[in-house]
Structures are given as C-alpha cells and as structure tokens.
Amino acid sequence: MAQTTDQRYRVAPVRPRGREWPFPLNLYQSAVGRKWVMALTGIGLIGFVIVHMVGNLHVYEGPARMHEYAESLRTIGGGLVPKGGVLWLMRLGLFTMFVVHLHSAITLSRMSGNASEKAGRISGAKKYEGGRDHVAATYASRTMRWTGPIIALFVLFHLADLTWGWWLGDDFVSGDPYHNVAESMGYLPVAIIYVVANIALAWHVFHGAWSMFQSLGVNNPRY
Questions:
Q1: Are 200 and 209 in contact (CB under 8 A)?
Q2: Which chain regions cross the lipid bilayer (predicted)?
C-alpha cells in the first residue's frame, strides 16, 4: 500500500536525552566532538608510529646501537624518576589514546547507522538502493571496518612477540631487543604477519588522514 504524504514525511518523536556530562566532557557526547577526539588521538597515534619506526631502524646499525636506543628509553628523566618510570607513563598515555580512539570509532559508527536508519524510516526511502552510496565510497573507507580490527589484533601479537616474549618462548631474551627482533623475523609466518599488518596500517592511515581533515575542516571547499 502506498504511503500518504503525511505518513511519508512524519517527524519522529523527540526522545529525552540522557544526562549531560560536565564541560568539557560533554563535547564527547556529540558526533562532532567525537570526530574531533578521534582525529586528535589519530594524530597522536600516527606520531607514535613514526617515532617507533625511526627508533627501530637502529636495528640495521647492529646490536650495540639497538641496545643503546632501548636503554635510552628506560632512562628518560635521568635520576629524577625511577628507571622506566617515564616510559611507563608514555605507555599509559599511548594506551589511553588507543582506547579512546577505538571507542570513538565504534560509537560514531553506531551513531551513523542509527541516524541512517531513522532517516530511512521517516522518508520511506531505501538509502542503499542501487548501491550508489557504496560506489561513491572509496575503497579505503569501505575497508576501515577490517583494517581497524586487524591493527588491534596485530598490536596484541606485537606485544606478545617482542615485549612479553610469549611467542618466542625460550628464545626470548629480556632486555635484548636486537636478538628478539632477529629471532622473530627469522620465522616466515611472523614476517608475513608484520607485512600484512603494515599494509593494513597504511590503508587505515590513508583514510584516517582524509577523515581527519574532514573533521577538522581543513579540506573545506572554501579553502
């Protein structure tokens, strides 16, 4: 049965909003605020990836240089703080950024899905009919739902491999990053995992950078 004009364009009832958080936490309750948070935490995570990559390039300079680099991380702060104290604070900050970035991405996806569903119910239209939205999206944006979980799983594997030593087992030597990297990369399946994970990371950063510029308004047509 065809819908009447009133039925087709009826306005959905307004539901009462949940309790509002205090400022500035209330900014995170809006989609715009969460996009900003995801963009800023993304910048922080990309910065870490770059610094981490540059630091690990010391592995090509030999065991002594790699050990020197690793030891310099543990002694940040000199004698003002306990050895490894600043490093653990940096790890805590990195973990917090990762969790907030993940939470904002998941909740934004849900908010977008709910908004699309409500819009479809109000207008009576099928948003994805004809596949035009799917065609318009870039390949990178369509695969974000896969690259994100792949990276998250890889982070856990990376920690188990070279930080906790669970993967190498008896071959793991605490405090000898050069040995652990060489042993780990000596296994072809592990090397393949790192290659695949880095490809997924590249795709994720590619779309993430575009999305970040959108959220911050950098690529506005007026500019």
A1: no
A2: 36-55, 88-108, 150-167, 187-206
